[in-house]
Amino acid sequence: MRALVTGGSYGIGGATCLRLAKDALARGEPAKIVLTATGARPDLAELVAELKALGADALGVTGDLADRDFPARLVREAVTFCGGLDALVCNAGARYKGALLEMPIDDWDRVFAVNARATWLLCRTAHPALKASALNKSGGAIVVVTSIGGIHPLPNYGPYSTTKAALVMLVEQMANEWARDGIRVNGVAPGSTITREKAKVQVDAQTAAMRAAALPMGRVSEPSEQAAAIAFLLSRDASYINGHNLVVDGAFGQSVMAFSAGSHSNVIGRK
């Protein structure tokens, strides 16, 4: 398994790196993982060390995906380090909180640059290496981490939801255009997941409990659960799944009627 994972230093990205490495090594295959972060944070180096301790070759790269030249440089560096590329996971993302009426244009543009433009540039640059991969008998695979925020509007995160909706269509577009090249492209749309950013929001135990109670399964997901879905879509077992956006939200998106009159109290009061 030769993989590039953006936003790979913690949360869903970090869990994905570990899952891909463990799965490959369990199959008796070498694992070469390139992972990225925006800055030189300690958790990037820590994850690289953890991957190496497992027996994988790992390289951490820092850079800003809003820089229009960085995605192509990143892919070229990953292809050189790995000796090719079997899998690309576009997980890195940006978002700013604010009402649409008050959103600065620069913030809007940056979210689009990181979430939408960089994903397209990463995938486009990786196309030749993925086409040459024999991971799934024909070529490599791409997973784009979308969001249920791209399916349901997320109040006060307008550019985030809009870019995630764009990614759902980009997945379908690339899947159709590149299928004959042997490249599969799918999305994973996480629901509420414990990442480092979400952990900051849920430091209050009461707030965390209320958030969990509003979810059909009574809890938020773990990064490893999202990583499992990503790893499956990259695997040979998913060799005929293409252009699909797999929602991994514990049925949260289908639970709106639970909050209608006469139902809301039952959800909040569930133990």
Helix content: 40-55%
**Largest sheet descriptor:** 7 strands, parallel
- Would you identify the regions where 5 or more consecutive residues have pLDDT less than 50? 198-202, 265-271
CATH topology: Rossmann fold
CATH C-level category: Alpha Beta
The CATH superfamily bears the name NAD(P)-binding Rossmann-like Domain
Please report the total strand number as a whole number.
7
Total helix count? Answer: 9
Radius of gyration, in angstroms, nearest whole number:
19 Å
CATH architecture: 3-Layer(aba) Sandwich
First CA to last CA: what distance? Answer: 42 Å
What is the residue-mean pLDDT, rounded to a whole number?
88
Structural class: alpha/beta
Q: Roughly what fraction of the amino acids lie in strands?
A: 5-15%
Number of domains: 1
Written as H for each helix and E for each strand, in order along the chain, the element string is EHEHEHEHEHEHHHEH
Q: Shape from CA axes? A: globular
Strand order of the largest sheet: 3-2-1-4-5-6-7
Q: Any descriptors?
A:
single chain, 271 residues, alpha/beta, Rossmann fold, seven-stranded parallel β-sheet, 9 helices, disordered C terminus
How is the topology of this model organized?
Elements: E1 2-5, H1 11-26, E2 32-37, H2 42-54, E3 57-62, H3 70-82, E4 87-90, H4 105-132, E5 141-145, H5 158-178, E6 184-190, H6 196-201, H7 205-213, H8 223-234, E7 245-248, H9 264-268
Parallel strand pairs: 1-2, 1-4, 2-3, 4-5, 5-6, 6-7
